[in-house]
Amino acid sequence: MFHPPSRNWLSPPSSGFIVKKTMRMDIPVDKYPNFNFVGRLLGPRGNSLKRVEANTDCRVLIRGRGSIKDAAKEELMRGKPGYEHLNEALHLVIEAELPAEIIDIRLMQAREILDDMLKPVDESMDFFKKQQLGQLAMLNGTLIEMTARRSLGQSPHFATAWA
């Protein structure tokens, strides 16, 4: 009787060595001081960053000045053990703990995706932000309301609550 191998036949055989690597990516806050990089990276309820992590098997951490939403709390935490990063410029730390043969590929995939997310784009041409706003509307339940109203021939500004 034939028993297929337990691993995916498309993936290379694993050496079994699990390696942990980290990579730092600077965020160009000095070049674009008015751009909300943290909001763009996180997306609605953190889903954009979660998607990057799920697609690459890497963990992405936002670190440095501006990484804590509450500026007063950030100031309070600065200098405490574990918060030394708050003395550095805003940056990302990408971590992976994967088989040696794929870890570099996954880290580079994460870097490429994050690089694209960190490029400020004119709002009228920002597909990524439109996608995030659509996600937010769906999460809040307002996307369904808008499509339901339009399909009923009602104004999108019709202000009744849908049960």
From TrEMBL:
Classification via Pfam families: KH-I_KHDC4-BBP
Keywords: RNA-binding
A biological-process GO annotation: regulation of mRNA splicing, via spliceosome
A cellular component annotation (GO) from this entry: nucleus
Domain K Homology: 19-98
SMART domains noted in UniProt: KH
GO molecular function: mRNA binding
SUPFAM superfamilies linked: Eukaryotic type KH-domain (KH-domain type I)
Cross-referenced InterPro entries: BBP-like, KH_1_KHDC4/BBP-like, KH_dom, KH_dom_type_1_sf
Protein name per its UniProtKB record: K Homology domain-containing protein
